[in-house]
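Comment thread on ticket #2218

A.B. wrote:
> Attaching the input chain for the structure job we discussed in standup.
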Amino acid sequence: RSTGGRAVAKQASAPAAGEAAADPIAALKKAIQDNPAQVELRLELADLLEKAQKLDEAKKALADALAASGNDVKVQEHIEDRQMRWAKQQVHVAEKRFADDASEANKKTLDQLRLAAVKQEIDIYAARAARYPENISWRYELATRLKTVGQFADAIRHFQQVLEDPRRKGLVALELGECFQRIKQYQLAMQNYETAIEVLSDREAEQRKRALYRPGVLATGLEDYETAQKHLAALAGIDFGYRDVAARLDKLASIGDTP
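C.D. wrote:
> Ran it. Output below, let me know if you need it in another format.
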């Protein structure tokens, strides 16, 4: 952004008090005419237009701000953050509409908006991961979105780079397990689930439950009933009401009783 900051922007935009109170958007547009190179004024205008629910005009103000900045990266990222927020807001509105009226048309609209929002985030986080390769957070955000849209091989590649971060190791191992399971690499899935179980702490209770449930279900499908029993029983000891763990343990018991 320009070096002046919002304080300078407010000084530069200081129209008459009565004029600002009557129409702050018009007053700010006039200030921009007088200070066309001032990026902060254009960002401030986008704020007002957004609050007035004039999103098309707000988007135009942001595009003008980027151009005025000479495509400054910080301004670009500021705009990207807004774009992601707007997309989430659209999804939220569509979710409320679908909750009120679960029609096929509303479901289709909701699905389309969710997919568009995730694809937009993939593009943004991919650019940031490339721009800041040392920032593991952007790579993690990218990997989770790739997993959401079913691009499991790409998600795995990025998740594996995030494993370096000890703070995320347990959760990332769980995500990797689910990705490997989806591409039918069951041994690699089990290895990552075991890592997740070992690393996830009691403070990460919900993730730890998932890390026990997933290999229990997978091992059952692979007819490795001993491993399935071990993980599902451990889960039951923590939360007997978790999903269908009780029914699964009953089924395993009946299999064990079969002569």
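A.B. wrote:
> Thanks. Noting for the ticket: Confidence is low (pLDDT under 50) at residues 1-17.
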